[in-house]
Amino acid sequence: MSPTKTTVAEHIKSPERELSSKPRSPSPPPTSDSRAPSLAPPSPTTATAGARLTSPNPDPTSRATPAKERTPAPTTPATAPAPAPSTPAPAAADSEADSLDAEISTDRVIDLDTFNQILDLDEDDTHDFSLGMTEAYFTQARTTFVDMDKAFDKKDLAKLSSLGHFLKGSSAALGVSAVQATCEHIQHYGALRDEENGVDLTEEDALAKIGPLLKRVKREYEVAEKWLRDWYAQNASPAEA
After folding, report:
1. CATH 1.20.120.160 fits 105-116+125-235, yes or no
2. Is residue 183 classed as helix, strand or coil in its secondary structure?
3. Has residue 126 got a pLDDT over 90?
4. Torsion sign over Cα 230, 112, 44, 168
5. Which is one Gene Ontology cellular component term of this protein (predicted)?
6. How far is CA 133 from CA 8, 173, 224, in A?
């Protein structure tokens, strides 16, 4: 494996390296661009052009969240009796969930430039290397969310900050930009700092801000995971026996 592949893979697969560091407060102001730097060398000659996402200026809204198929509602004969009224779900909960999904569906869930750089590391159309990185990220993200929930229940803000920093880095490496951005907020709030407004936070304020973000980041991850799995299902060729 080349040095570049080894470096990128280790970034995804080594959670202990990031979790051991303690957050510092205050954190330096974020830069205007939180995307990870370029991870890959120029495309190797063995990479196949057809394996890349080809839009020169990709529309993240349309690419990151494939449209769901709609099932037409069945027609009801005119003579059919009126159905019994069902018990409506709580309006507030439905409204909050719909609003969150609408926000995420228009966000830049996947950074296609970074994802294409990861694809450049593949040696053939099987995409074995990048697919391995992606699967490792899925496992890592799910484990981190469990740890975040436990830390939140214990009001362990230092742990939340460390976990946010860790998942932010691995998400940036793969181009999962929506999760990256939300984890950066969790990192700063866990360090009792609101970087957007340039103010320090109390523990109560920090927990109040982190709670909704934990729900949001899990939904962003679900959208990103589906997008990535769909891409590999459509573009990765099966390995030869």
Report:
1. yes
2. helix
3. yes
4. negative
5. nucleus
6. 8, 10, 14
